[in-house]
Amino acid sequence: DGGITQSPKYLFRKEGQNVTLSCEQNLNHDAMYWYRQDPGQGLRLIYYSQIVNDFQKGDIAEGYSVSREKKESFPLTVTSAQKNPTAFYLCASSLFPGAKGGYSNQPQHFGDGTRLSIL
Amino acid sequence: GIQVEQSPPDLILQEGANSTLRCNFSDSVNNLQWFHQNPWGQLINLFYIPSGTKQNGRLSATTVATERYSLLYISSSQTTDSGVYFCAVANAGNMLTFGGGTRLMVKP
Fold this sequence. Notes:
Shape of chain A: globular
Oligomer: heterodimer
Order of helices and strands of chain A: EEEEEEEEEEE
Structural class of chain A: mainly beta
Order of helices and strands of chain B: EEEEEEEEEEE
Largest sheet of chain A: 7 strands, mixed
Number of strands of chain B: 11
């Protein structure tokens, strides 16, 4: 079945440690996104990528890094510089947004998320 | 950036009741999505509705883009409808901005 797979479901980070969250999609989508959700809040955009080997910062990119070497994969690294990493992380994908009109209005589809906690 | 406000923030219903959730946004958009987040955190797509009206079973949604609001209607609510409902919007570039959500509890 086509979909978005995030792993692991639960992750624990020690102080000073970098951790990487995996996101894989087999929907043949061009664009991929990472969001962070804090308890009782809506989602906020961390990074997004519209094509392979290109990505841009979202609203809260500090302390995070990403790569987009393959169309299917968009891993997120939570670095030790992120002082408050405990949150629920969701990955999404969509067809290429493009310019306004045409492909710009494509719905995003979400994975099941990874819960990250500090030990 | 775009501001998104959802109301009410919390809603308690008796099973079988109807409800209307509202989403106001501050700028023109070309993507508007309604999601249901279940107790396990899964974000389920309900509607992609940048304009117009759509229906899916007991749920329907209407977006009036010129007046910058969208409504989600839930009819004959069931306990499985409980959770958080999010509205999210985007303009050029398709980066979604989420509202704060409406937390719905349906009592049996």
